[in-house]
Amino acid sequence: MIPSETTPGATPLFPLIDTHCHLDMADYAPDLPAVLARAAAAGVCRIVTIGIDLASSRRAVELADNLPALSATVGIHPHHVAEASDEVYNELIRLATDAASLVAGYGEIGLDYAKPYAPPEVQRRHFARQLRLARELTLPVVIHDREAHEDCLTLLREVALPAGGVMHCFSGDVAFARRVLDLGLFISIPGIVTFKNAVQLHEVVRALPLDRMVLETDGPFLAPVPRRGKRNEPALLPHIARAVAALRGEAPTDIARHTTANARRLFRLPELPDHAG
């Protein structure tokens, strides 16, 4: 587990939506109520908690059912597709259908050639299958893409996605970002944007149209500076928003307002509650 501290701290910035966090993971089990309280205090009004396999998708839906400021996604991450069967996919369909008011998206799905837990051809087959499922369910997709840009784009072009989607934790350059935008997708900016050596991501952030950008923590991973190496959590999202604002020469409040509106549009989220708990 990633080390944590009890008071991560971030000057509040309202309103924010964390579009990608893994709140069901064991890293948050000891203090989830405090994590949510800190998120609310930091200005984070809604959190999308992400499924990565059938079990975590069920946990994400359960969390969203119990916590009104949470929304869930369901799906099979490329690290877990080798375990996915017809029965698993049927269960995911049932889960997304039965909990339709709680499930905002389909994912995290995609391709990971950096850590090939399954052979690339197996990953591609499952990614294509899940894109079709997302289309049938009319859900936006949450895409994981590591060192697989061309294959991701090829498969995305082959399956029309009327509900759109988002390229999570964006790792490409400006040219790739433009190709993603051409497909009608949003681009999500993680805590890596606060790293001084993330020059390519800085260029992307400067080039992106503001109406196609959303923000994420990807907690418990990829904590932003000044918490790099610690457990990430939604309360740290203001650090990411402020880094984006500084790179673009814009007001942090404008970044918060626009990315929140984008997240609501992407995931068809309800009106914002007063807190994330």
List strands and helices in order, with pairings.
Elements: E1 16-21, H1 32-41, E2 44-49, H2 54-66, E3 70-74, H3 86-98, E4 103-112, H4 120-137, E5 141-146, H5 149-158, E6 165-167, H6 174-182, E7 186-189, H7 199-207, E8 213-215, H8 237-248, H9 252-267
Parallel strand pairs: 1-2, 2-3, 3-4, 4-5, 5-6, 6-7, 7-8
Describe it:
This protein is α/β, with parallel strands linked by helices. It has one domain: TIM Barrel, CATH 3.20.20.140. It is 40% helix and 16% strand. An eight-stranded parallel beta sheet has the order 1-2-3-4-5-6-7-8. The longest helix is centred in the middle third of the chain and has 18 residues. The N terminus is likely disordered.
Structural class: alpha/beta
CATH class: Alpha Beta
What gyration radius follows from the Cα positions, in whole Å? 17 Å
Mean pLDDT: 95
User: Helical proportion?
Assistant: 25-40%
What is the tally of helical segments?
9
CATH topology: TIM Barrel
Strand order of the largest sheet: 1-2-3-4-5-6-7-8
**What fraction of the residues are assigned to beta strands by DSSP?**
15-25%
- In whole angstroms, the N-to-C terminal distance is 23 Å
Low-confidence stretches: 3-7
Number of strands: 8
Summarize the structure.
Helices cover 40% and strands 16% of the residues. With 277 residues, it is of the alpha/beta class.
Key features of this structure:
TIM Barrel; alpha/beta; disordered N terminus; single chain; 277 residues; 9 helices
